[in-house]
Design a protein that fits this description.
The chain has 351 residues and is an alpha/beta fold. It is built from 13 helices and 10 strands.
Length: 351
Amino acid sequence: MSIKGPAIFLAQFAGDEAPFNSLDAITRWAAGLGYKGVQIPTWDARLFDLEKAAKSQDYADEVQGICAANGVAITELSTHLQGQLVATHPAYDRQFDGFAPSQFHGNAEARQAWAVEQMGLAARASRRFGCTSHATFSGALMWHMMYPWPQRPAGLVEEGFAELGRRWKPILDIFDENGVNACYELHPGEDLHDGVTFERFLDAVDQHPRANILYDPSHFLLQQLDYLAFIDIYHERIKAFHVKDAEFRPSGRAGVYGSYSPWAERPGRFRSLGDGQIDFGGIFTRLTHHGFDGWAVLEWECAYKHPEQGAAEGAPFITRHLIRKADRAFDDFAAGGADPVAIREALGLPA
């Protein structure tokens, strides 16, 4: 088994101008850059209709046919925006209204119900495309209390994860019915943002087999988490992979929290592939070692470089890091066989 790729997440490239304004045009553009797969944002009507894909195999076949004709596969569908709305704190209501259709603005309860329905549609649509993994966010009830000052009331974190579990367990059951893994991108701003929070969530959903991880090392570098050791710990739950670079350059004036600065001025910021500090050689090696056979998907986010330059550089960068897993040991040429007598003699034991 080997990692597949290169692929590209279309969310940051979709727009109103050609070739970014239709699925046909944007997949031809991606294939022309060398990409073999695309991750599709399900909220962008210029590219995709989630409800139709969930309910109509004919439409799903049409979408898949467009991609195949242009030389790319569908790696995963994404509901990052809808997943965010499964759980939100009222402090963010105005900011998150834009993630939902206008008829739900100002009505958090209706907005959440819409998001839950969207997640079910995404599970069913994923099955129609033959996708076994799906990219999403967990949402957040506690992010505004990330730093423990003022002191949190006793039991707040426990109840927060219990509520997340209550909201996501029925959704995960739908994903299970459709044979699809819900892969949470562990991301600052989400209650699931590192290994510990993911473990707490797993406890809240009874270790649900469909609760899995979209591995994105950029968010871990910015938190100063060991992103290589993370793979060793959680590899059994890593079912999707965003290839995204980042750098962390603290100064005497600012550190991890970023001082409310714009992205280009923060000590921690996302970069185009190869421009940051992520050890992708180590990541691809660890993932290959643990048998990850999903897609390596570029997620482009950079405060400096033009997106089209980042996309053009991304495909060859990923291709260089793909590993064809060895089928034999490098020193097999010197092997002496498995003669039991020779083995005992090598140990200095009587034959």
